[in-house]
Amino acid sequence: MRWPRRFFNFYLDASIHVALSVCCCYLLTVNFMKVSTNWQLVAFLFFGTIICYNFIKYGVEAKKYLLVSNPYHKVIQVFSFLSGLCAAYFFLFLNRRLQISIVFLAFLSILYAVPFLEKNKNLRSYGGLKVFLVALVWAGCTVYLPAMDDMVSDFDSTVPILLLQRFLLVLVLILPFEIRDLKFDDKELRTLPQRLGVANTKKLGYGLLVVFLLFTFLNDQATALEWCYRVMVAITLAIFLYFTHEERPRYYSQFWVESVPILSLLGVSFY
What we know:
Prenyltransferase, mainly alpha
């Protein structure tokens, strides 16, 4: 059983699972907005997420962002490099509007990882800020990009609501990770669990889920399927958040919590 476990760990550590989650969020968006699926964009998001996440997780700790000493991390580095080449390839097939938007979102991701502030700090060093930046990039990639790609006619009404809902959803998705890492994070990070405590962080998450649902009332085009999806996602995340604590194994958040978008897409597809 060693090899299946190793493969599964690589699947998680190399950010393949989170990349699938991002793609599923995109596919959920095109389903609800009833726009065409751009498979070149899906491929770019998949490979782009891998290179971006792995650069943040491993590159910032490497010498000059390239030289890693851990053999396992070297394998992930090679995989990330190949993913980066694939992302660059599919980027060339995207229209100019998408390319400009992607460059802006990539710039935000770079600010998250690369130190540019005083005392050699990056935005990741500010725990209270990083969760909002991650949620913003996710929302941009999975809602704004498909809207821009299809030039949605009702951009002034539906898309901002979907953007806010995706932003809130990702914020709640991040909270179990923040709670799990509480005992490892430097106190200077001032993450939400450090500032509010675990119990209040969970209450914040429940409140965000309520707001997430309330925004659906503002969307006149929301179907019964969309309502069902949002209610089920809110209940599922609330349950995950309720049972989150510092001693949970990494698979709880890194696999099960991040599986919520994947399971949501499967549920919507088979409805």
